Amino acid sequence: SMVVNKDQILSTYYLSEDCGVLETYDHFFETSEPGSTTVYINPKGDQAYYSRSSGFDQFKLYTQSKLLNTWSDERALFTTDDGSDNNYPFVLGDGVTLYFASKGNGSIGGYDLFITRYNTNTNTYLAPEQMGMPFNSPANDYLMVIDEAKGVGWFVSDRNQPEGKVCIYLFIPD
Predict the structure, then answer these.
(1) What is the DSSP string of the chain?
(2) pLDDT, tens digit, for every residue of 100-118?
């Protein structure tokens, strides 16, 4: 694990080409809109997953498809709006498994890591499951990434860290 400034998370670790790309929201959308969010773009470069503010300091997860050279067709990932603050999406290479952070859905404190899978029969995501300890804590735990090509995973947490610092925990997925 390593401790870095919170604004340096994405410049600290690089994904394999086969895993897609992580960018900051403001860079991807070329905006100065405030907010600490990330955008995950799949390896083909034709699907983006991100969160954006839904007001009142809450974020909601969305996806867009790339048609020719234009991003369009924005859709919310979850059709119900339960008031959860969902952020930091990452999709495994299977295109079905989604990791994200949420302050709702039964979080034990701050952001917690959740996993869900896309149901191709209903075109919806299954009910999210909290990942539990050691991935989650009463602090903010977010940005779960599995780099299948390198055989490692990492997630970010501000547990036991001074203001503005986070710890990136590296692990070997089981």
Answers:
(1) -EEEEGGGHHHH----GGG-EEEEHHHHTT-------EEEE-TTSSEEEEEEEEETTEEEEEEEEEETTEEEEEEES-SS--S--EEEEEE-TTSSEEEEEESSTT-SSSSEEEEEEEETTTTEEPPPEE--TTT--SS-EEEEEEETTTTEEEEEE-TT--TTEEEEEEE---
(2) 999 977 788 899 999 999 9
